[in-house]
Amino acid sequence: MWNRRVFLKAGGMSLVSFGLGPSFLGRAALAAAPAGSPARRKVLVTIFQRGAMDGLAAVPLLDDGALRRLRPRLAMSAAQSAGEGTLLDLDGRFGLHPAFSPLLPLYRDGRLAVVHAVGSADSTRSHFDAQDYMETGTPGRKGTPSGWLNRVVGELGHEGTPFRAVALTPTLPRSLYGPEPAVAVTNLADFKVGVRGGGKAAAGAAGSGFEALYRQTSEELLAATGGETFDAIQMLSAKQVTSYRPAPGVDYPQGPLANALRQIAMLIKADVGLEVAFAETGGWDTHVQQGGAQGSFARRAGELARAVSAFWADLGAHADDVAVMTMTEFGRTVAENGSGGTDHGHGSCLFLLGPGVAGGKVHGRLDSLDRDALFEGRDLPVTTDFRAVFAEVAQRHLGVAPGAQLFPGWAGKGPGLFRG
Amino acid sequence: MSKARFYVTAAAGLASMGALAVLSASPGAPAPAKPATAAAPQVPPPSTPRTTGTLAIPWREAGWTEREAAAHLLDRFTFGPRPGDVDRVVATGLERWFEQQVAGGLPEPVLTERLGRYHALTLSGPEIARTYPNPFLVARQAEQAGVVDRQQMEQALTPDEEPMSGEQGREQRQNRRAVMRYGMEQGYRSQRELIAEQMGQKLDRAVLAENQLAEVLVDFWFNHFYVSLTDNEARSYVLAYERDAIRPHVLGTFGAMLGASARHPAMLLYLDNARSTANEGAPTTFQSRRGGAGEGGFGRRGGFSGGMGRELRGRGGFGPEPGTTDGLGAGRGPAGPPGAGAQGGQRRRSTGLNENYARELLELHTLGVDGGYSQKDVVEVARAFTGWSVVPPMLEAGNQRRLARARQAGSFGFVVEGDFLFRADAHDAGEKLVLGRKLAAGRGIEDGREVLDLVALHPATAKHLAKKLATRFVADAPPAALVDRLAARFLATHGDLSAVMRTLVESPEFWHPVHRGAKIKSPFELAVSAVRATGARVLDGAGLVEWIGRMGQPLYLYQAPTGYPDRADAWVNTGSLLNRMNFGLALAAGRIGGVSLDLAALNGGREPESREEALALYLPRLLPERDLDHLAEELSAAIRDPDLSRKVAERSERESGGGSAYGALFREERRGEGGMDSSPYGRLFAGHRLSTAATGEPSALEQVVGVILGAPEFQRR
Q1: Cα–Cα distance between B24 and B11 in angstroms, integer?
Q2: What is the signed CA dihedral for A192, A194, A197, A199, rounded to 10 degrees?
Q3: What local confidence, expressed as pLDDT, does residue A26 receive?
Q4: Consecutive H or E run containing B386
Q5: Separation CA A56–CA B383 (nearest Å)
Q6: Mutation site for B-interface testing, chosen from A2, A129, A285 by largest number of B Cβ within 10 Å
Q7: What pLDDT sits at residue A315?
Q8: Is A191 within 8 Å of B578 (Cβ atoms)?
Q9: Are the beta carbons of A169 and B8 separated by less than 8 Å?
Q10: What is the pLDDT of residue A199?
Q11: Sign of the CA dihedral with A57 first, then A62, A63, and A67 last
Q12: Min CA distance, A109 vs chain B (Å)?
């Protein structure tokens, strides 16, 4: 890591001092990539749905007797007569919650896949532990120092820029803990020198003052990272982050997830070297009044679907290099509870969107919702280990070889979510 | 946006408090103080110093001047020099100063008075847990008391990020108020208040303590025996953990600290040992001593119910939940009504052995990852610790009875001490083999104690700890000879930590010039050192705490049991470095809420007349005894930038709200029902600390000081 950063810094400096545009920096990093690697960097965008999404509300079995019995108030129908509450038919067996309808065209296009009955090898029903296990990629082990996305970055095998791994979150997520540099930022417009309300001139002066100080300091790490920092600021300011406009006709919804995805799209289009991005969305812990076609689940689902759909449209041709994967710490009880909601369960489902994805299909095994088939008699069983999905996505999309370095103690096989 | 952001922060655990965040902050009615021992908050008594003869610090031999050596001591063993500290250390004498620090007995009038503002510090650990309960517990209690029904309770607990509208919203607010009122009547206070106090006291101690080494070591050892506020269950125990399990031992013996951490509720809950029980079929201590199969209600299935509040929300889907009836928290005990346990809801089920604590005990707390233990040892250690558990904070009737019986059942091996509970009914009484040592069958709490003794003074532990200490106090990659010497000292003194610190400062490696300024400050160290260097006063900690989080170290909120890494490259990345620079500018310009500073006072009340003069005057004050010639040259070029002299009135555009978890936390508090002004929390973090009052162009002096604080040299210690 260390040598790479020094190398990059030297490259960045000379380019900037020759007056070339900062975007050149990203391309320079690409030029240094080993032969045979793709001309453009692939980008993996992960979205963590915190709170445990109800996979059976998102992608239920169509007209399933057991589901109807266990969810008398929540189960929806695909029948036309159901009107607004109509499930969208995915493959004759599974339906899609209508609030996810903005994603349906991507599914029909064969770009979006669903993986069902996915989850953790650990059966904890604690949000805290399950999120921890998913983000470290080591179910049952809390002490793993690094997050799985950080390890992915470490295995990319080529140089990176300061914006290689970015979380659009207030603090660095557990997924990105680790030795590889990663940036957590909620608002890219904050990525500059200066104090709030402090005046632009002073900020500009302090910025150039700091830049000179850091570039010449004798402490190597501070010099290298300082250099990167100012390169990064320059990159962003040249890309006019604050005045970013999405592609014509693209309308992101309100809300933190859409805001995060909009900034990720901006980073991708700005060609600043983004390779792994992290965003998150809350509100999935639907214990009360979960609702059907309307209600709290539908609102969260609608926001997610509209945000991802807008993001994808905004990317335009860049979408050829981007994969989006959702994840959630566990699923919810198959049966509804007394408050019109669902409680903590086990398996759930995830969405995978990208160019090579074997989309238009619901992957994974979900045989039956009869009680005998359920995990502990109550939850959707996990038939696909989330690590199998993550490892395959890292391998097929980012070219990271699967192995113990990515998911220590695990040696499973990918479920085959990509074409060819 | 803040609402949703609040929930989805990495501190996902904290988020779930959102629902009942303002338990004690309801309109106009200050929470009644729970009757408590009104003891003054205590600055910890000094550990008994073990004098080992006259200290000899080899700074001369290494070619340092006395003032440089004093500054180096201050850089490494304090949170940074205050104005005049180098003079004071020289006047005291370097050896004597260090001995005073190791003794930890300097009077603390300023700090003691300051800590008087923190209510929680006047309470014992168990009192804190019962005064600042998890909102889930309060809601459930309110339900049991008939204040709200089941559905109303669920509604009250639904997090804020999906605000209910219309009739539902009204109901939700109503139900929350009902639960809050109930909580206030019980004398409960908000966990946010507790967290604010916890963060505030950490800052105050670091800034104000005269016994600085003890504070630096509390920071180090807490991070070593790490527990996290992100854990719902452990949360209300963390302040007491730091105060009672870590602080008294940082200059005492390692074994005592290890033992205190092992039995503290914060650790037992954070690393799940509280729910680790003998595997199905294994004989328990209770059974073996009673000579029967535990039909008296203390079998594994007769555990304490009520849980700790981690996940008190759900219910079983339908029918009995296999495997959920064991142990603490999920009990559907024979004494309870059928199905009562289900109301305890879903949380981590104790399906027998849980290895988390055992693994981290060996890997993180003692032997180290390469310490020569096997997975089999982990399992055996986990078996040895089965039954090491916690008295549930809210004693329902059934639990009261069980606890009383546990106290009386001493002869069967139960132990109750404070909130520590050894459950003989959950302890695996079979024979164990730990690191080659055989633990005989039929024992109880002695198993865990023996394991602690075995690992506390193990050579691998000595090496592991020596390396961590040398990394903290000398360099990221400390010399092997130094590590070996510290490890040897540790073993020779049976884990006497003050002896190890003495050996450290007497080591030639500590004084090798290459290590001068070689450590990069953590964000907490940076913030505190800047406050100390500028003589700033911290009126309340919220603003600083938010900045420290933004720079990459959200206090007490790191999720992993490893604690924060102690390496420069973990702290220094583009985002955090930028925030460090901006922190320097913001502090110097008086833009950090709750912090007041008078830069002119540092110079006897006189404003310098030029930037150059400001630099010449303030550089040696803020960075005493560094290579000032070189620094001044670099800095004067930086501050001579023509733009810096241009007075521009235009303000930078109003930016969107602060991006940290704390920003969200505090905003959330403020927008909570009833606001924060009436709460003790409001008193603590009064006013608009986060939106800074000062605006406009910083003065030339503020800019110069800001550049010094944000400069690379100030990031080093």
Answers
A1: 22
A2: -110
A3: 40
A4: none
A5: 38
A6: A285
A7: 97
A8: yes
A9: yes
A10: 66
A11: negative
A12: 31
> B346–A131: do the CB atoms touch at under 8 Å?
no
Q: How many Cα atoms sit within 13 Å of A322 on the Cβ side? A: 25
Give buried/exposed letters for B89-98 (b at 16+ CB in 10 A, else e): bbeeebeebb
The full 3-state SS of B238-272, as one line of letters, equals HHHHHHHHHHHHCCCEHHHHHHHHHCCHHHHHHCC
Residues 6+ apart with CB under 8 A from B444: B285, B289, B387, B413, B415, B422, B424, B427, B429
Question: What ranges in B457-522 are assigned the alpha helix state H?
Answer: 459-473, 480-492, 497-506
Distance of CA B339 to the CA centre of its chain: 38
What local confidence, expressed as pLDDT, does residue B162 receive? 53
Taking the alpha carbons of B374, B376, B380, B386 in that order, is the dihedral positive or negative?
Answer: positive
Mutate to test the interface with B, among A8, A74, A128 (most CBs of B within 10 A): A128
Please give the radius of gyration of chain B, using alpha carbons only, rounded to the nearest integer: 27
Looking at the complex, report in whole angstroms how far the Cα of residue A93 sits from the nearest Cα belonging to chain B: 24
What pLDDT score was predicted for residue B641? 56
| Amino acid in the structure at residue B207 | V
Reduced to 3 states (helix: H, G, I; strand: E, B; else coil), residue B295 is: coil
Q: What are the E-state strand segments in B330-424?
A: 388-390, 415-417, 420-422
Pure H helices in B354-495: 356-360, 375-384, 397-408, 446-456, 459-473, 480-492
A123, A214, A379: residue with CB nearest B712: A214
Q: Which of B562, B578, B634 sits opposite A143 (nearest CB)?
A: B562
Which residues of chain A are under the pLDDT cut of 70?
A: 1-39, 80-84, 196-200
Q: At what angle do helices B446-456 and B254-262 cross, to 10 degrees?
A: 140
Q: Which residues of A touch B310 (CB under 8 A)?
A: 126, 128
Residues (pLDDT < 70) of chain B are: 1-53, 159-166, 291-351, 395-398, 409-411, 640-696
Measuring CA to CA, which residue among B528, B549, B302 is closest to residue B403? B302
Q: Which residues contact B187 (CB under 8 A, 6 or more apart)?
A: B31, B32, B33, B34, B35, B131
Q: Which two tokens stand for residue B4?
A: 């949703």
Q: Where are the beta strands (DSSP E) in A170-257?
A: 183-184
Contact pairs from chain A to chain B, CB under 8 Å? 329
Do the Cβ atoms of B582 and A217 come within 8 Å? Answer: no
What one-letter code names the amino acid at B44? Answer: P
8-state DSSP, A234: H
**Residues A407, A371 contacting (CB under 8 angstroms):** no
Contacts of A371 in chain B (CB under 8 A): 318
CB pair distance less than 8 Å for B317 and A334: yes
CB-CB under 8 Å, A170 with B9: yes
Is B548 in contact with B667 (CB distance < 8 Å)? no
Please tell me which residue of chain B has the smallest CA distance to A172. B10
Please tell me the predicted confidence (pLDDT) of residue B53.
64
Of B151, B520, B561, the CB nearest to A142: B561
Q: At A323, is the secondary structure helix, strand, or coil? A: strand
- The rounded distance, in Å, linking the Cα atoms of A349 and A382 is 10
Q: Could you give the CA distance from residue A312 to residue A27 in angstroms, rounded to a whole number?
A: 23
Neighbours of B174 (CB within 10 A): 14
Q: Which residues on chain A are in Cβ contact (under 8 Å) with B359?
A: 141, 143
Polymer length in residues for chain A: 420
Kindly report, residue by residue over B523-534, the tens digit of the pLDDT: 999 999 999 999
pLDDT score recorded for residue B200 = 97
Contact B207, B696 (CB under 8 A): no
Which of B161, B269, B551 is most worth mutating to test chain A (most A CB atoms within 10 A of its CB)? B161
- Shortest CA distance to B237 belongs to which of B124, B136, B346? B124
Distance in angstroms (rounded) separating the CA atoms of residues B716 and B526: 9
